[in-house]
Write a structure and sequence with these properties.
- This protein is α+β, with helices and mostly antiparallel strands.
- It folds into 3 domains: 158 residues, no CATH class; 43 residues, no CATH class; 193 residues, no CATH class.
- 50% of the residues lie in helices and 15% in strands.
- It is built from 16 helices and 10 strands.
- The strands form 2 sheets. A 7-stranded mixed sheet has the order 4-5-6-7-8-10-9, with helices on both faces. It has a 3-stranded antiparallel sheet with strand order 1-3-2.
- α5 crosses α7.
Length: 456
């Protein structure tokens, strides 16, 4: 067999098919950055990153910058699809005529508003004024407001992701950012769109957008919208992004993974989503909700939390050991704790006041022919630092596109300690499902499921 083991000091790389499937698999999580379109949340996340960059927790800030870079790629891909749609929308933009009441001085210029004119006959004015009715064309339709909102939303999203990320200023990403922002600004200056900007700036909160979508859908359904097909596509696009399930063509997705800049973080997010799906299925839930990653990280919340019977299970992303256990085992001469940050931490809380069971899952984008011993020993280091020693439980997930049979290594110690190493490959669905189901069974064993079923 060819030796495929990689240098442990070099970041791992996806193969093309694996990267493509990982992007699709992690897309719901990445799109939660846009899921509510709330600019307040974006600013909150940026502020929290700035605060962290000034203290010792630089690892968290670096991780946020990497996720922001990946998020920027998604935002640019989504913006490309949005601009294509809006090109068709603005080829024949919708409009309506409205009657405006104004006053004409000296002579009536327009249709006289007889009712208002009669009511002011007793008034003496110099110069003489005439109330008139003017018919004016307006672009303030629900459909155009939706188009304007989507542009303003992604203008700020791209700007925020760009400033938060560590993307080099002279790079393909930066060139694409500048090009996309210029395109958006040009469209926003068009009369059919610019007329809507003040309304969107004043009203563009989450509930308003959902109400606006419903109004547009009603108007489309009743045939009151010209140039119907592009506006229908716009509604589908906004609905998809709000739900974290955007519609992207192959070209858009290909742009996101043209290189390996974010492969490591992409692998972590993909593994986390797959594990959450397996755990939800394990405890009897057919679907999983998609957490908002920016809120999860900025507020130190669980990415997922499940209640089943008397138990509570939470899954956290990049949660430090010092927050998991009362006291860390190792300290330096300066008194600082030797902390760590597993990629995924799970805590299973039993009924009553008992301490939770803790599990660590560390995805590492590394190819190995045999067991990933370097990563396994790092897991043992987490156990030692957390004071778990031989009672710790954890899993290493590593990348095995070159192996036909999914490798699983299972190591056990006294006091029920256990470390598993499982190979996964985003390009093979069934291959992965078996591995993630093994982890779900480790965390929620058969005995726990059976006892909960008996209680019910």
């Amino acid at each position: 067999m060819t030796n495929v083991a990689e240098d442990i000091n070099v970041a791992g790389l996806f193969e093309d098919e694996g990267r493509r499937n990982a992007v699709y698999g992690a897309l719901p999580l990445l799109c939660t950055y846009f899921a509510e379109g709330q600019r307040e949340k974006l600013r909150e996340t940026e502020a929290s990153i700035s605060r962290r960059e000034g203290n010792e927790d630089n690892q968290a800030a670096d991780a946020e910058a990497i996720v922001a870079g990946l998020r920027l790629r998604v935002a640019l891909a989504l913006a490309k699809s949005l601009l294509r749609i809006l090109d068709s929308v603005l080829d024949r933009p919708n409009f309506r005529y409205g009657v405006t009441r104004t006053v004409s001085l000296g002579a009536p210029r327009g249709k006289l508003d007889v009712t208002r004119w009669v009511s002011q006959l007793r008034e003496v004015k110099v110069p003489e004024s005439y109330p008139v009715l003017s018919v004016e064309r307006s672009s303030l339709t629900p459909e155009n407001l939706l188009a304007c909102y989507s542009l303003m939303w992604f203008l700020e999203e791209i700007q925020t992701a760009y400033t938060t990320s560590s993307v080099p200023r002279k790079s393909r990403d930066s060139e694409q950012v500048i090009h996309t922002l210029n395109q958006i600004e040009l469209i926003l200056k068009r009369p059919d769109v610019s007329e809507c900007r003040m309304v969107v700036a004043r009203q563009g909160h989450t509930q308003w957008v959902h109400n606006l979508l419903e109004e547009v859908e009603l108007r489309l359904g009743s045939g009151r919208v010209g140039n119907r097909e592009p506006y229908e596509e716009l509604v589908r696009w906004v609905r998809g992004v709000l739900a974290g399930r955007p519609s992207l063509n192959e070209g858009d997705v290909a742009w996101m993974f043209y290189d390996h800049s974010f492969d490591d973080k992409l692998f972590e997010l993909w593994c986390m989503h797959q594990l959450a799906s397996s755990l939800a299925h394990r405890i009897g839930e057919r679907t999983i909700t998609i957490p908002n990653l920016q809120t999860v990280r900025s507020r130190s919340l669980p990415a997922w939390e499940w209640m089943f019977g008397q138990h509570r299970l939470e899954l956290r992303f990049q949660y430090s050991l010092s927050r998991c256990v009362p006291e860390l085992a190792w300290k330096g001469d300066d008194g600082l704790k030797l902390d760590g940050r597993p990629d995924i931490t799970l805590r299973l809380f039993p009924s009553g006041d008992s301490l939770p069971q803790i599990f660590f899952v560390d995805p590492k984008l590394r190819k190995r022919n045999g067991p990933p011993t370097d990563e396994i020993y790092k897991m043992l280091g987490y156990f030692s630092a957390a004071g778990m020693e031989n009672a710790g439980k954890g899993v290493i997930l590593y990348y095995t596109p070159h192996l036909d049979t999914q490798p699983t290594y299972d190591y056990r110690a006294a006091r029920h300690g256990r470390v598993m190493a499982i190979g996964v490959d985003p390009a093979r669905t069934e291959y992965n499902r078996a591995g993630f189901d093994k982890i779900a069974t480790l965390i929620v064993p058969d005995g726990l499921i059976e006892s909960e079923s008996a209680e019910r």
